[in-house]
Amino acid sequence: MDAPELFDPDLWCPLTDRAKRDALSSALLAALDGAAGVRETRIEVGPVDKPYDYTAVVETDVGDLKTPLWSHARAQIFCDPSIHSANRRQIAPGLDLARAAERLRSRLDVRYALETRGLTLTLTPESGVERTWTAERARFRDRTAVTREDVIPKAGDVDLRDLLAHFYTGPSLRVVGEDGEAFLLPAGSEEEGRMVSLCQACHHWEEGSVAVCTACGGPAETVIAARPARR
Q1: Mean pLDDT of 171-178
Q2: What is the pTM of this model?
Q3: CA-to-CA distance for 61 and 136, rounded, in angstroms?
């Protein structure tokens, strides 16, 4: 990516807000070069109290696609001169832009097919996972349904409850089996965003998925850090 200001705080921070958004938009358009249906890109700002909660937007021939890009908290840290520049470079907007472009590219050419059972589309939400959505209307059975199937070819010896929790989307549930045994199915979201691990003991957080807190050794919970949809 030929845009040094997206990685260097000394070049980025003196820019005006408009210049920052223009630089990100141009870099996003370049990163999506050759992708199907792309017409233009833009960067949307966050709410008044968090203007640097940026959202990357791709204008396509059929409508807009959006994904979270950068956060206000990261923007403040990136331009904080009291923090060593080498540490600030690790959260540069250019790094998050590359990840956002990858997410958007994977959503720009999702194929569908009209089959006897209905309309089917397949995509890859994460490495090694194939997701299929099917919308069908079977008039002779008086049945209309939309189903989702996630196929993991090489799941290995994974506990089925953990597997369900990984792909489940919805509010947290107390799930009870026929034998009366119950377990908690945590709330899940399909919002795109950064995956972070939260420590239940010391409240330390870090990016990525970890089972044990690196600060105190306590149990950690992995969640998706996603901004709520605008109303």
Answers
A1: 86
A2: 0.71
A3: 26
